[in-house]
Amino acid sequence: MKSGGKLIVEALEANGINRIFCVPGESYLDVLDALHDSPIQTVVCRQEGGAAMMADCAGRLTGKPGICFVTRGPGATNASAGVHIAMQDSTPMILFIGQVARHARDREAFQEVDFRAFFGPIAKWAVEIDDASRIPEIVTRAFAVATSGRPGPVVVSLPEDMLRDEVDAPAALPYTPVETFPGPAAMEQLGKLLSSAERPFVILGGSRWTDKAVAGLADALQAWNLPAGCTFRRQSLCDHLHSSYAGDIGIGPNPELAAAIKEADVVLMIGARFGEIPSSDYSLLKSPYPDQKLVHVYPDPEELGRVYRPELAINASPAAFVEAFAALPAPASPRWASRTEKLHASYLKWSTPPQTGPDDVHMGPIMEWLESTLAPDTIICNGAGNFATWVHRFHRFRGFATQAAPTSGSMGYGPPAGVAAKMQFPERDVLVFAGDGDFMMHGQEFATAIQYDVPLVVLVINNGIYGTIRMHQERDYPGRVSGTDLNNPDFAALARAYGGHGETVEATAEFMPAYERARASGKAAIIEIRLSPEAITPVRTMTQIREGR
């Protein structure tokens, strides 16, 4: 006979979990008690949204579900930001929520929320466990649902009295991963489509990739000499110095790259849904009927034909597809070779940062120095804001699982993601980019980094405004500033107050020694880079945007 809490922890252990992220609550004390004797590391976070984002990052970088525990009511609703990210980003994740006791349900008991109704639209599956003897079954199913087809978040509600029940239940068995493979007829048709193409283009995106799949695709791109681009915040799917790489298909893409996709006659899209942001509001590929012949490869059949009607739909995971694609005979002298070379040269020019700006701090030279300094396996984490342009456009990602950023555009993701990334890969450097408004969303997780001795470096790019919103405001309502100014703390002093290392940069030349000192400190560090609001984009100032120039 075992308690429900004990069965939950045993099910996690059986499914290979070695770390969970949580904010404690009295609603799941029996789980916390069972974790006391478990080899699973319990990481205590400062806010449920941060805990859920850490779980998302763990799932994003490993392909295995990240695990988060929170309490009922406001704890669960705080965590919903991370669930939304995991859903839009197709990240495997499981959120466990302590729930009111079963006898109190439907009375609007203390902090009661109907979690199946609340999370239903933004989770892949939301379930409540009424019978503790079914815990092994439902938890293992949660792992299967979170990882199969299009991955996503599963929410499991745990009534607190159910967790205390002593029951006889079978031992939990691990979930069985489900792979989907392309059929030979589909691969033969793909070979014919590509061989007859004049201007093919490959789009990479989504989740369920592996190191092996990314390496195999790089070899296949080389053999076929195909141009390829990565969708928004999926840039670690292709080495940016690979001769086939044509750039990031995100916000404000290289015009030559956008034109190449529009002009393509065959588009091979692997693993991506190609939503509103990467498609430039469905203009690069028209929905529902693209101008190009679209070959859409995706692990979930429900996504095939959902937004775009494909010429050829292939229900396969990226890993299985790449294995089959590598076996297709490539043409000896593809007619599009010069186009591929031209697009890669255009990318290299596009991704070379400017050396000047309207401020004493120039981000271009800073990015250039970081490119010469960072190890190829450095993990870059960021949330949302104009500051992220410096990463997406000017950092050249070299390896798989080196980028952790929400395609959903959620702010506050960088600091908690950085903590999870460094815990998962302690041997690798982790660098977080955050804006001032972005950092303040979940900057309290810097305390988690200090508590667990996680030596990441956070760059807080501080311009005293919600930059992206101000940019749009000045464009659409010039000179009518409303709701976008910020009064910020001294971020370097804040880092020191937490027990970390703090630096302030007010001139370009100050950054390099500040970064070296931050790394040498061996502590979690914040480097505050103070920018003028004028330096709102790499190529246009705030004044130019206001004046329509």
Précis, in short:
54% of the residues are buried. The N and C termini lie far apart (73 Å).
Low-pLDDT residue spans: none
CATH-scheme architecture of the largest domain: 3-Layer(aba) Sandwich
**CA gyration radius, whole angstroms:** 24 Å
> Which of globular, elongated, flat, extended, rod-shaped describes the shape?
globular
Main beta sheet strand tally, sense and closure = 6 strands, parallel
Please state roughly what percent of the residues sit in beta strands, choosing from under 5%, 5-15%, 15-25%, 25-35%, 35-45% or over 45%. Answer: 15-25%
**Amino-to-carboxy terminus distance:** 73 Å
Strand order, main sheet: write it out. 3-2-4-5-7-6
- Tally of distinct domains: 3
Question: CATH homologous superfamily of the largest domain?
Answer: Thiamin diphosphate (ThDP)-binding fold, Pyr/PP domains
What is the class of the largest domain in the CATH system?
A: Alpha Beta
State the helicity in percent bands: 25-40%
The averaged pLDDT comes out at 96
The chain-level structural class is alpha/beta
Number of helices: 21
